[in-house]
Amino acid sequence: xxxxxxxxxxxxxxxYPHGTAIFSTLMQVAxxxxxxxxxxxxxxSAAAFLQNSExxxxxxxxxxxxxxxxxxxxxLGLVLGILALLLAFFIRKTDSKKSNQPAVSSNDxx
Length: 110
Hints:
This protein is 67% helix and 0% strand. It is an all-alpha fold. α2 (16-51) packs antiparallel against α3.
């Protein structure tokens, strides 16, 4: 949420609704992509574990494969979390009162 606030502070007040709509859309899309990414990682790791297993039909082996899949998904989450933390250090504070509106010259006032 602080990143969203920081991003919206870069906009002029008349663009706040558009910025909020874009952020909401991006959060939904990123959530769907993230879910697909983690489930794919979990499924692929579990399948690889079962492929190397002596008896893939054994319920104990299937449970171990699921645990291996969860471990791989959480490891991916840890890597992405550390990456996000490192990127957070590069966010610079800017003046939120700065306006991007062009200055009105005396010739434009008719």
